[in-house]
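Thread: quick sanity check before group meeting

JM: Hey all, I'm pulling together slides for Thursday and realized we never actually wrote out the predicted structure for the chain we discussed last week. Dropping the sequence here so it's in one place. If anyone has concerns about the input, flag it before I start.
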Amino acid sequence: HPAGLDAQFSAGTCTKPFANEHVITKRQNFKIKGDELLSLAKDVVAHGVENGPLSVDFQFTAPFIGPLNRDEFRHNLKVLDLHQAFPDLNPQYYGFQVDLFEPNRVWYFLRPVATNLGHFQGKMPLKFKPTGRCCVEPPQVASLTFNSTGEVEGHTMGYVVDRTIGTTGGLGGAFGLMWNIGHPLPVPEGKPWSPSLQLMVFNTGNAIVQGLLMVLDRVTSFFVPSWLLSKHARNNV
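JM (edit): ok, ran it. Output follows.
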């Protein structure tokens, strides 16, 4: 388990429905403590995670990206070059907090805002002209995980917590910016979420239809190779 996770399963650490923060915190032994860890995280974020002290075993994950190692992460950011297309991009980071169960992990929120004032290409085959559109992304949660020497060994980003907010169709990260300016990534994950036909049919509440869908799903997963089935089968209505 990551540092501190064992504590949550120990006797006396849980008073339903709340975790016993005092007991769990007391049992933690991560070298870099509270305020020092928060300051370290804020410093890394302020200078750009890609420019920070990334460990050899660093991993980056986002809802539809990764895990990426250190070199892949830095290369992807360089290719995206978001500050070229959105020179006034402001992530608006806030709410930094050390995780109770993983004392080497810092969580924080962001509400990115930006204006498309420059050309954008990223991984697209064409370069697109500036649209002048203002992008307001929904609130998202991110995290940094550190090792005992203060290096970043894990980074998560782009996890939207309320898709009803903003102008990006509920999408976060680069996917949201691209959709907002009218040049979404040409894959289902690059477009706003919409329920699949199966989900809409299942939600009708008809027991017979629901049973048939379950049988169809099990049969399909048994006979069809897993690589043919989308892990993110959405936006397909």
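AS: nice. The beta strands are 14-15, 18-19, 54-62, 65-68, 93-98, 105-110, 113-115, 134-136, 140-146, 152-160. Helices lie at 21-27, 34-47, 70-80, 82-85, 173-180, 197-202, 207-223.
JM: adding both to the slides.
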